[in-house]
Protein: Isoaspartyl peptidase
Amino acid sequence: MTKGFVLAIHGGAGVLPRAEMSPEREAACHAALARVLAAGETVLARDGTALDAVTVAVETLENEPLFNAGRGAVFTRDGTHEMDAAIMDGRGRRAGAVAGIAGVRNPVHLARAVMERTDHVLMVGDGALEIARDAGLAFEDDAYFFTQDRWDSLQSTLKMQADGTLDDDPARRHGTVGAVALDRAGNLAAATSTGGMTAKRRGRIGDSPIIGAGTFADDATCAVSATGDGEAYIRLSVAHEIDARMRLAGQPMTEAARQIILNDLTAIGGSGGLICIDRAGAVAMPFNCEGMYRGCVKDGDKPVTAIY
Ligand code: ASP
Structure:
């Protein structure tokens, strides 16, 4: 039986406060999210897989300098880039992920290559880059990954650190991109990609590439992609917690996702959000901060994008 498809995407929970958001930038963000939805929708409308749809959606987000992943990745405190990405196929819980990598144009493709070309799930360093080369993935130089906004954020963060005035403004620190999809065959998939947190230490790894923290998919329950304070998401095993509450406690996904973000994440001082889809096609996109770049399209419906 053919069921309808659903695709949800996010461009991170680190949105600019309304007061600082220009109408031009707001329009550019909505337009970028709409392009991403269209790219993923094209795959799903041709009876493509959820796995292919989240790959294309995240690739498109990574190529978009407005969001913190791929081309628009934030800088470490040393002025370098270290990116994390993961992908999970709800059919049989296959997964692939990379952490702390630089130079690969689309980290989500490398995560997928880890899943499809190795027996491993999470890879770092030269071993990960070797897979990218073997798979013929595109590499880019530092200039490609340089964006003035991200550089300015690093400088202001370093200055605030030096002055002892560092706040925890999510707009300056956060960002990540992700996608979750349900295809017409009833399969779920999730993918997440990030530059991490502005001014992070070299070697710091967030929740995005950790299966069960920032990324998760199982056809029996749901697909999840998270964005926010990575350390908090790892400590709460956020994505897996939603799956577990559905499987073991019979809780509806929407309720589980809301509780984890609004209660549990808030209780340990974390900020952020997530997007998730369950096997029946329900979508939830809770966040506990000012906003989250996000969008959703359902089979036969008009796409919707939102920021606040
Ligand atoms: N979760 C990402 C990380 O901790 C950052 C973010 O989504 O804001 O690396």
In short: Residues 23-45 form the longest helix (23 residues).
